């Protein structure tokens, strides 16, 4: 079904990739994939395509390039759903350590990202964070007025004051940082949630523009640290230090970047996301499943806060830290 669709809409004569029958197609030495448009964090497809081409021209490897259809548009409808065609080269490439490659990616994307920074997370400061915690606070007060609470809501009510306090600490920290320092470092192309899996799990790296956002590079470093610690992917403290040192060899981690990492790590994203997903659901929820997610989050928070204390001492010795972690 995909092969005739690609030929009709894009004029490309491709074949099914037998190693990836679910979605992959082969066109010459490239693999083609259809991605849902609503899975992209940046929604200006023409501007995003310009970003991919700019980075490719600067020598950035492994980028999934966006392919225009025969009309010159980057969004096409497949079975009633808006989709984007991505092309990934299957050529072999040099082996570079991920932290070093991430730093190079940030370096090469800084100029291109600055052109799209006006409405980015970096320029909007903590407005988005504040709105998210305010929305959950509204859920908290609505639940206070309910006579009967679901098991999830009851547990949410018991811990929300603590997590909202963490969020307010993070927001105040980042607000003070912006007042004191301003926007002294330009944004880059970053990832919504960077982790060891973002560029692929099979050994071949793929930089998918669907994952991209415009933000300060500290975002990717903070999210890698958070995910690695949260999921138990780090066995020793030295692994964290090594990751940052390898990145630093290619792109300096300034004291301002350290402060940006710290502020983002303070914000309790795992708790926020679980609560947001629960309250966004319509109808019946699997209370046991959602309570399990929330309890796992609560139990991991203690060790995560211990990590923040260690990190404040080892890495942020030249950066202001919040009183309760000092």
UniProtKB/TrEMBL annotation:
Entry GO terms, CC: endospore-forming forespore
Coiled coil stretches, renumbered: none
Keyword match Ribonucleoprotein: no
Keywords annotated in UniProt: Capsid protein, Virion
Signal peptide: none
NCBIfam families: spore_yutH
Protein name: Spore coat protein YutH
Organism: Scopulibacillus darangshiensis
């Amino acid at each position: 079904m995909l092969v005739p669709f690609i030929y009709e809409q894009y004029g490309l004569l491709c074949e099914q990739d037998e190693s990836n029958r679910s979605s992959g197609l082969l066109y010459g030495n490239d693999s083609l994939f259809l991605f849902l448009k609503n899975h992209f964090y940046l929604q200006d497809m023409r501007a995003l395509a310009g970003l991919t081409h700019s980075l490719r021209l600067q020598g950035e490897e492994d980028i999934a390039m966006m392919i225009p259809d025969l009309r010159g548009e980057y969004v096409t409808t497949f079975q009633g759903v808006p989709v984007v065609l991505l092309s990934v080269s299957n050529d072999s490439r040099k082996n570079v350590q991920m932290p070093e490659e991430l730093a190079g990616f940030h370096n090469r994307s800084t100029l291109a990202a600055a052109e799209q920074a006006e409405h980015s997370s970096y320029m909007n400061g903590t407005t988005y964070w504040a709105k998210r915690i305010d929305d959950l606070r509204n859920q908290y007060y609505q639940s206070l007025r309910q006579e009967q609470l679901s098991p999830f809501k009851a547990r949410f009510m018991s811990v929300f004051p603590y997590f909202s306090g963490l969020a307010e600490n993070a927001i105040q920290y980042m607000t003070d940082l912006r007042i004191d320092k301003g926007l002294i470092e330009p944004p880059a192309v970053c990832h919504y949630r960077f982790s060891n899996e973002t560029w692929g799990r099979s050994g071949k790296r793929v930089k998918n523009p669907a994952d991209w956002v415009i933000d300060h590079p500290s975002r990717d470093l903070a999210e890698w640290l958070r995910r690695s610690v949260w999921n138990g992917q780090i066995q020793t403290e030295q692994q964290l230090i090594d990751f940052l040192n390898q990145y630093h060899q290619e792109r300096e981690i300034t004291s301002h970047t350290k402060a940006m990492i710290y502020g983002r790590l303070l914000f309790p994203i795992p708790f926020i996301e679980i609560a947001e997903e629960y309250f966004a659901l319509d109808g019946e929820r699997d209370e046991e499943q959602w309570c399990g997610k929330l309890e796992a989050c609560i139990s991991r928070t203690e060790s995560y806060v211990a990590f923040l204390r260690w990190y404040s001492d080892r890495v942020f010795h030249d950066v202001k830290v919040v009183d309760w972690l000092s």
